Amino acid sequence: MDGAKLKSLLRKVGSGKLSPEEALKELKHLPYEDIEIAKIDHHRALRQGIPEVIFARGKRNEDVVSIARAMFKKTGRFLITKASKQIFDALSIKAASFHPHSGIIMAGPKTGPKKGGVLVITAGTADIPVAEEAALTAAYLGNRVDTLYDAGVAGLHRLLGSKNSFEKAKVIIVVAGMEGALPSVVGGITDKPIIAVPTSIGYGTGTGGFSALFAMLNSCVPGIAVMNIDNGFGAACLAHKINTLR
User: Fold this and answer.
1) Which of 56, 64, 179, 211 could be cross-linked to 83 through a Cys-Cys bond (beta carbons 3.0 to 4.6 Å apart)?
2) What is the pairing mode between strands 96-99 and 104-107?
3) Which of the listed residues 64, 79, 107 is the one where a domain comes to its end?
């Protein structure tokens, strides 16, 4: 439950449209619902501004399905990251959609006008799955999202030719593998907040994304936030909070 739903519930009680007993039924799973395999934090959106999200990797498919169904029953929405087609098929929820490139399954994203503006840039085409995780998560949370893919340092004219996109954005997510140089380049040509995401793309000495991670952490451009390797979801959450503050 988020702030808007709670206010609506309280107004209905205040106007007599809803009895206190009926309101109690709505609130009985706050702050969490215990379904044995998980304690679902329905209160998180109200407390943190971002609802609980299901990380599928490492969980049994049937457990992911049980959690998602419980969330959908209570709130009419859910987001699953690092998911598979098998999980999507087992859900059998018509309102859900599966995005295989990013491994995202979602249902019931926010409707209405989108907040702020998030621009997601990738260095290469191979970085797009992580970028799509960021873009879809940010959109699910209610942000306006634009993308600029395959604009890495090997051909800077591709990036510089799209500088108008920077002006529309409130925050920029830059996703890059290999040597991870792109966030520094972007940070050097814009005053917008930069969130850098290293990916595990690259040859042997890339060490699964650590070379890109270290490069981003050692950027000489001040004020760049760096996420964990392949963590497009985390980047989207930070971008959403920045947009909400602004």
Assistant:
1) 56
2) antiparallel
3) 107
Instruction: Give the pLDDT confidence of 158-190 residue by residue, as tens digits.
Output: 888 777 888 889 999 999 999 899 999 999 999
Contact criterion met (CB below 8 Å) for 246 and 189? no
Do residues 125 and 241 share a domain? yes
Q: Is 102 exposed, middle or buried (0-12, 13-18, 19+ CB in 10 A)?
A: buried
Q: How many domains does the chain have?
A: 2
Closest listed residue to residue 133, CA positions, set 46, 197, 85, 192: 197
Structural domain boundaries enclosing 141: 115-245
Residue 59 structure tokens? 């969980």
239: in domain: yes
Q: Say whether both 157 and 87 belong to one domain.
A: no
> Which residues lie across from 148 on neighbouring strands?
121
Rounded to the nearest 5°, which phi and psi values hold at 173? -100, 125
Same domain, 233 and 119: yes
Q: Which residues make beta-bridge pairs with 121?
A: 148, 174
* Cβ(216)–Cβ(232) below 8 Å: no
